Structure formats: C-alpha cells, structure tokens
Write a sequence for this structure.
C-alpha cells in the first residue's frame, strides 16, 4: 500500500502546484490586457492623426477600416516581457503539476496492478491527468498561455471533487473490468475527452472573441490579446477532429469489448447510448463545419452541445440511478 | 447560406452535396477551389449554388417528377444529414432515461406499476422500446437513405475525378491563398522542369495545359476516405441487419451439478432471428460443475463488490461426444459450433423440500431465486401443485447473509453465503387460475389466500439450512436442505458481427484519411523576365517585377500559386519548397501580399 500512499501524496502535491499555476495564469492574463490597451491607444492616436491630416486634405475618413476590427490581435499583438515571463512561470508550474498527476496515476496503477481506472475516483483523476498532459504537450508550441487558466481551473475542480466525493481505496477490479480492453478502450476515451476539453475551452473563447470583434467593447481586455476568432475556430476544429477520430475508436473498441463481456456488441445500455449521442453530435458538428451554408458560430454551438453530452456521459450516466445499465460497476 | 436557404433554387441547379462536402461548388468540375477565390480559371468554375442574381425569379412549375426530384435533393443534402444527425442524437436520449424492454423488462414493468398515469402514453409512444420505435427507426432510415443518396453520386464524381487531369492554371496566381514569385537564371523550360520535379516528389499529379505552366493536384485520398467512411457505415448497418435476421440467443439458468442439453425447447428463454431454423441449433451438452465466486470482504466503499466469477463446466459438442473441461468467466466466453457461451449472471438456488402430513415428499428441487440487489437479496417462488387438500405456493426471499433482526424486513448484508436464510410466506388455493402460462418466478395469488397461524396472523417461515417448518393445520412441512449457486449463461450467435467489425475498422480508416489528408492544387507558371505581367494579365502590379536578370543574363520569373479547401498550414510549406526548388535564383521569394 506504500505506492498507493505515494500516489495520493503526488495527487495532493499536483493540486497545490495546479493552484499555483492557476494563479500564475491569471496573473499572466492580467499582464496581457494593458498591453493591448496601450497598443490600441497608440494605434488610435496614429489613426486619429492620419485621419486629421486626411480630413484636412479633403479625403474620405478611413473609419471603415477601424470599426471592422479595432484591435484584432493576430500577429500584430506584441506581448510584453512581463506577460511573457509570467506565462513561462505558469507553464512551468503546469508541467510540474501535470507530471505529478501523471505520476500519481501511474503509481496508483502499479499499486493495484492494473490500469488505474477501475472506479469513479480513478476515472476522474486519470481523465484530469489526460487533459493536463495534453495541454502541457501542446501549450508551448502553440503559445497557448492564454488558454492555461481555462484548462487548469477545471482540472482542479475535477480533482477536488474526485478526492472529496468519489474517493475509493485502491483495490481489485470487478470481474467485468478484468480485460485488456480496459487499458485500450478507456485510455483512448480519456485521450478523446482531453482533446474535446481543449476544443471546448477554445470554442467558448472563440464565441467570446467573435462577439467582441463584431461589437467592440469600450475597453479591451486579455480576450483581445488572443488569436483572432477565425484562428481560434480553426484550432478548435482541429482538436475536435482529433478527438472525434479517437472517440470513433473508443466506440468501436467498446463494442468489441462488449461483445466479449456481454455477448452482444451493442445493446443500447445507457453508457452506449451516450457514447453514441456524443458521436452523432460531433458528427453533426463535422458536417456543419464542412457545409458552406452553416456558419462556424452555429457549428461551434453544436460542438459545445457535444461537450455537454461528454460531461453527462462521465457524470450523470455513471452516478444517477435513472441510467442504470451494465456500466454501473464504478465502485460508487 | 448559399444553397439550402435559397428556396428558389430549382432542382435542376441544386448540386446536392458536392464532393469535399461543399455544396456551393459544382462537384463535377471543382472539388477544391470552393473557398472563395473568385476568378481562378475563368470559365472553368461554375458556381451553381451561388445566387447568380438577387431578383425574384419566376418559379418553374415542378410537377410530380420535379417535386420528387426536389424532395430527393433535399433529403440527400448535407443540411438534412446534419439535421437528422442531431435529431438522432436527441431521439436516442430517452432510451437511457426510461427503462427499456430490450435491456430489462422487469424494470419496465416496475416503472409502469409506479407511474400508472403517464406510462400508458409513454408505452404507446414507444418510450420503453425506443430503439425499435417507429420514430427512431424513421430517423436512422432517413439518415441512411440520405447517406446512400449522397455517396452514390459522389462516388461517380470521384471516380471520374480520379482519372481527370488537374485543371488549367488560373490567370492570376497571385490571387491564390498561397503564392510566391521567384526570378531565376534558368530558362523557362528548365525552371518549369525544376518545379515539376519538386511537385513529383511530393506526389502531386501533374499536367501541363501549355508550355509555360504546370497544374498539379494531390490529396485524392481525402475523398476516397470520405466515401470509404460513409460506405463502411452502411456496412455496419448491414452487419446489424444480418445479425438480427440470422442470429439467435438463448439463456439458461444452470445450478451447480445440473446438466443442460441444447435444443430449441430446453432454453429458459430463446430469441431466434426471423430467419433462424431453431431445429438446427448446435446440440451441445453443458454441465456446471462448480461456480467460483468471490466478493470483496475488506470494509470500505467496495465492500461486497464482486471479485471473481468463474464457471467450471464440462462441455460435449454433441450428446455422447467427447467431454472437455472448460472455464467460462466474465470476459472469457467459450465457443462451441459457432455459438458463444457467456457467463452473464449468477445467484442462488436453495434446495427446498416440501412434504405432506404423512412425510411423503411432494417437492424437492434446487429452485433459482433471482438476485435483486448487490447483496443478492433474491426473490423466488415454490409451487407445489400436488399438495392437498389445496395447492400450495411459497413466495419470498433468499438472503445469503441475512440481517438477523429483520427490523427493516428481510435484508441481506453481504452477497456471499455467510448466514443464509429463506424467508417465505405461504399461500393456498389455485396456483394456475385459468390454466394460463405464467412465470416460474412469480406467484399468481388471484385465487389463493395466505395461510395464517392459529391466531390469524400471516405465517412467516424463516429457515436456515437443515431446518424444517411445520405448516399450520395438516398441511405438512417445508425444509431448507442446502443452497447451491446457479450460473446465468447466455448462448449467442451473431453472423453479422464480423461484417460490422470489418466495416467499423474501414470506417475508422476512412475517417482518418478523409479528415487528415488535404486536397491541394498548385500551379506554376513561367515567363521570361521583363515580359510584363502574367499571361492574360493586366495586373496593375505586374510591371513592378524586375525587368531583367542581374548582369543582363536571361532570366525567368516563376510564379507559384497554391489552393486548398480548408485551413491548411502545409500548403505554404509546399509553395515555399517549390520556390526553393528552382535553383540559381536571383531574387528571394517575394513578399506574400
């Protein structure tokens, strides 16, 4: 049980570091906003000056150009050194926290001698670890410092809930879960959820960013320091695409396992139903994204609805007795 | 909103779902350049989906055929598919909220009993059989009709696209998403050859429509993958249909020490597909020697959760055939004659003996009691039609580990047999009113009344193994001899499963190809430096190019343009690579303006 104790210690440690990372990310965002305001002020001053000259010269005022995207950041956004430093600190903390969390999951797996996702507590922890790891791997190369707080905060929430509500002592598996498919089916599901989560956070930010691009607010905030709405949308799409492929695999692997364990690969058990619902909603999103007549805002709404289904699938379906089915061996 | 929201689009001009999933472009001519490059290749592209003019057109009269065509186009349009997908996902949800007959008919019965007001309506609307209901079936059938109506024409288009040559280079390559211009000392032919070499290496399909340009296209696998994915989905459905028609399942409850000979009549329940001949079921014989079960005895949240189910069986593939010892456990079915045998349930069969007043045995059987909760509080019924003067029926509970006080009624506190006990009430009268068939697990008390003690209170029989209870009056006695475990075994064949599995794997493959591969077109055009703008061009900035090579050597200007359907970060890299592949450059790649 020593390993199990260490796993718990690593879990607590990762929560502390994630908390620090969350604070650092907030601190980082605080440093981003004024930069935009400053640059906007400068840009505005220049524009005014030019306008004055041009108006004086009798030329039409170039107001159209300004109202379109007054401070679309894009490549023009200059990050201050302060903001960059804080972003780096936050990222470092996230790396450490994610490493601790992954280590905790691994130690728990070693302690119980099986894939460490046999009950709801392990499930929540492993899913959080997948999200943390996916973000850590992708954040640096994509300059996703602005995204950090929106990823780390939900991770902390999930870990907190896992420890307070769902905690289960490390133990042996129920017979139904004793299959190598547990390692394949569930780990790919985690990976898919991790990508869905990143895409969801970016999708939400896209909607906010788009709204503010269309109706520029009086004062800019850190939102304006993010990539343009079009770029955010493309990123969310790519992530959703990866997640959708992984989810398709999850669905198929689950069916193969179900055939082995229950004798039929598809029986509309509640978990299967929701896995299918998620799949169809995201399939609708992929179609919407590929249909020229459907604007990206609408398809993003579909993707967000899909993520709500993901959350329902991982919470209500496991915990609420209405959804009693054959997946109810979560140790709850 | 180009295509579908325009109700005035007549069927003749409605392109349906174009390849590359963009309805705004004509599938036959242009699967790639859908993203809005208005004047690439004038005359080549016909934007059928786009409103040519905004004025109100006079509506043509469609007639029956026209209406049918219009309806078909609507059904097979991408928007309809999107809508049906969303509808399907919503329609699937009630099946996870309401109990379903296909999963647990008992829970449906309970639900109906508890909700007498709403349940008849819910039942009529199919909420207890969602996945077999007309509305659910209608949605997925429409979806598949839409799918087939989409992929058949798309396959035709794609097959011809596979044989086609890349289109002529558009006039102004500078207007494409990605473009570059380099000047080289090579001759135009040499420069073009160098560009061709790079494109060839990158597996583009090449074609030169004239001596000064080359057109290249790649990523045909994208549409191949798309089509494969959608085609494979129909394969999954076909596999499901085959399984439904030709598959069968039979369930058995088999107590330890008992033997089961497979035939249509011996299963507790059997559900054959419509095309199954139940006379040809595999005639195996299976006996359950021992069922090993373990539960977690460590206190904590997982207390009482199962740890092991393992059925030790002896199997003969035909009566009198050689016997082999087989273990059936959860996740490890055994196969005999194409049928898989699964261990899906377990429980207890108390061995009960009922004697008459003279001591003659009326009933002695291992009677399965069905577990109701995680601690195996099990319900069961003992029917003794041979009892006299009236038939006797016992109904009640088996508790593997009885909570002794019974303060909350008969409750089991652990799933293993640490303190087994049966708690029964006894009834007398007519067991089978009207002679109608009934379940062996329920007692129909319509024509029975409960046997009471001398003081008029109902009898409650509580027995531990080995104990006997003398029934009041001259009704005889009941003995709880011992308890054995039973295994709930399920025998199944699904000849459609391999079809579905292969289709599912192909679908995944197709999905990966269709989503990750990019359909790209790249055009390269060469002209002698100083010859002005691009061919056919009156571009205002064309004249800004350097008029001649440095040092008066002959020079060639190479213009490269790339086009992709969606966001495609790799395209810029390809354009750059071609620019870099033209050697002996005089000027670096010009700015992408």
């Amino acid at each position: 049980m020593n390993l199990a104790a260490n796993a718990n210690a690593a879990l607590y440690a990762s929560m502390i570091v994630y908390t620090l990372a969350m604070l650092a990310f907030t601190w980082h965002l605080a440093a981003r906003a004024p930069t935009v305001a400053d640059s906007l002020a400068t840009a505005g001053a220049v524009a005014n000056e030019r306008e004055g000259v041009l108006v004086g010269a009798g030329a039409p005022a170039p107001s159209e150009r300004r109202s379109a995207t007054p401070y679309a950041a894009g490549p023009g956004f200059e990050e201050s050194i302060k903001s960059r430093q804080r972003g780096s600190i936050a990222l470092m903390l996230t790396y450490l926290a994610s490493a601790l969390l992954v280590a905790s999951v691994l130690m728990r797996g070693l302690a119980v001698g099986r894939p460490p996702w046999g009950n709801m507590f392990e499930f929540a922890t492993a899913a959080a670890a997948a999200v943390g790891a996916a973000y850590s791997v992708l954040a640096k190369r994509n300059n996703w410092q602005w995204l950090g707080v929106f990823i780390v905060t939900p991770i902390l929430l999930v870990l907190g809930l896992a420890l307070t509500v769902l905690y289960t002592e490390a133990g042996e598996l129920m017979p139904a879960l004793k299959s190598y498919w547990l390692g394949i089916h569930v780990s790919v599901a985690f990976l898919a959820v991790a990508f869905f989560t990143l895409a969801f956070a970016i999708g939400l930010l896209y909607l906010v960013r788009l709204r503010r691009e269309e109706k520029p607010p009086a004062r800019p905030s850190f939102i304006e320091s993010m990539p343009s709405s079009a770029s955010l949308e493309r990123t969310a799409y790519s992530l959703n695409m990866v997640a959708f492929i992984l989810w398709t695999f999850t669905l198929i692997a689950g069916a193969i396992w179900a055939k082995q364990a229950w004798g039929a690969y598809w029986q509309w058990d509640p978990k299967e139903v929701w896995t299918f619902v998620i799949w169809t909603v995201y399939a609708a999103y992929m179609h919407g994204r590929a249909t020229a007549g459907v604007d990206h805002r609408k398809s993003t709404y579909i993707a967000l609805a899909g993520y709500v289904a993901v959350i329902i699938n991982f919470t209500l379906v496991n915990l609420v007795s209405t959804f009693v089915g054959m997946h109810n061996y979560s140790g709850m | 909103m180009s295509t579908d929201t325009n109700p005035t689009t007549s069927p003749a001009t409605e392109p349906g779902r174009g390849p590359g999933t963009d309805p705004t472009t004509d599938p036959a001519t242009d699967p790639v350049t859908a993203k809005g490059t208005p004047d690439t290749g004038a005359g080549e592209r016909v934007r059928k989906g786009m409103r040519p003019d905004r004025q109100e057109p006079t509506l043509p009269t469609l007639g029956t055929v026209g209406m049918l065509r219009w309806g078909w186009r609507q059904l097979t349009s991408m928007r309809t598919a999107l809508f049906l997908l969303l509808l399907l996902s919503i329609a699937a949800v009630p099946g996870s909220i309401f109990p379903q007959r296909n999963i647990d008919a008992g829970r449906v019965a309970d639900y109906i009993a508890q909700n007498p007001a709403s349940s008849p309506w819910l039942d009529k609307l199919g909420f207890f059989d969602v996945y077999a209901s007309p509305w659910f079936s209608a949605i997925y059938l429409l979806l598949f009709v839409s799918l087939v109506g989409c992929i058949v024409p798309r396959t035709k288009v794609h097959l011809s696209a596979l044989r086609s040559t890349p289109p002529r280079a558009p006039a102004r390559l500078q207007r494409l998403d990605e473009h570059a211009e380099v000047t080289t000392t090579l001759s135009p032919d040499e420069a073009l050859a160098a560009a061709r070499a790079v494109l060839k290496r990158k597996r583009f399909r090449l074609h030169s429509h004239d001596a000064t340009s080359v057109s290249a296209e790649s990523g045909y696998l994208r549409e191949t993958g798309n089509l494969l994915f959608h085609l494979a989905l129909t394969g999954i459905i076909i596999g499901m249909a085959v399984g439904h028609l030709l598959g069968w399942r039979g369930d058995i409850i088999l107590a330890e020490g008992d033997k089961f000979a497979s035939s249509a009549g011996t299963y507790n329940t059997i559900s054959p597909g419509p095309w199954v001949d139940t006379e040809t079921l595999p005639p195996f014989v299976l006996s359950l020697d021992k069922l090993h079960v373990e539960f977690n005895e460590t206190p904590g949240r997982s207390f009482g959760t199962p740890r092991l189910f393992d059925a030790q069986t002896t199997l003969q593939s035909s009566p009198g055939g050689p016997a082999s010892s087989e273990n059936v456990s959860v996740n490890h079915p055994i196969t005999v004659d194409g049928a898989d045998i699964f261990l899906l349930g377990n429980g207890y069969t108390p061995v009960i003996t009922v004697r008459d007043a003279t001591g003659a045995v009326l009933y002695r059987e291992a009677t399965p009691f069905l577990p109701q909760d995680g601690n195996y509080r099990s319900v069961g019924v003992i029917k003794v039609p041979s009892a006299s003067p009236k038939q006797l029926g016992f109904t009640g509970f088996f508790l593997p580990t009885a909570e002794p006080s019974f303060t909350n009624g008969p409750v089991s506190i652990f799933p293993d047999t640490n303190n087994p006990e049966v708690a029964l009430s006894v009834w007398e009268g007519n067991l089978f009113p009207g002679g109608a068939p009934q379940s062996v697990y329920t007692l129909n008390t319509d024509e029975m009344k409960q046997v009471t003690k001398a003081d008029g209170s109902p009898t409650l029989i509580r027995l531990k193994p080995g104990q006997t209870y003398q029934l009041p009056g001259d009704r005889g006695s009941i003995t709880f001899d011992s308890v054995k475990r039973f295994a709930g075994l399920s025998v199944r064949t699904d000849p459609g499963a391999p079809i579905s599995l292969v289709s599912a794997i192909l679908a995944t493959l197709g999905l990966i190809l269709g989503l990750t591969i990019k359909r790209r077109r790249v055009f390269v055009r060469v002209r002698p430096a100083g010859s002005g703008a691009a061919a056919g061009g009156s571009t205002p900035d064309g004249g800004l190019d350097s008029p001649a090579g440095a040092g008066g050597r002959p020079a060639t200007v190479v213009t490269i343009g790339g086009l992709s359907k969606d966001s495609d970060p790799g395209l810029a890299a390809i354009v750059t690579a071609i620019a870099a592949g033209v050697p002996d450059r005089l000027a670096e790649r010009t700015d992408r303006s």
Remarks:
- Chain A touches chain B through 62 residues (CB under 8 Å).
- Confidence is low (pLDDT under 50) at residues 42-76 of chain A.
- The two ends of chain A are 21 Å apart (CA to CA).
- The CA atoms of residues 263 and 277 of chain A lie 22 Å apart.
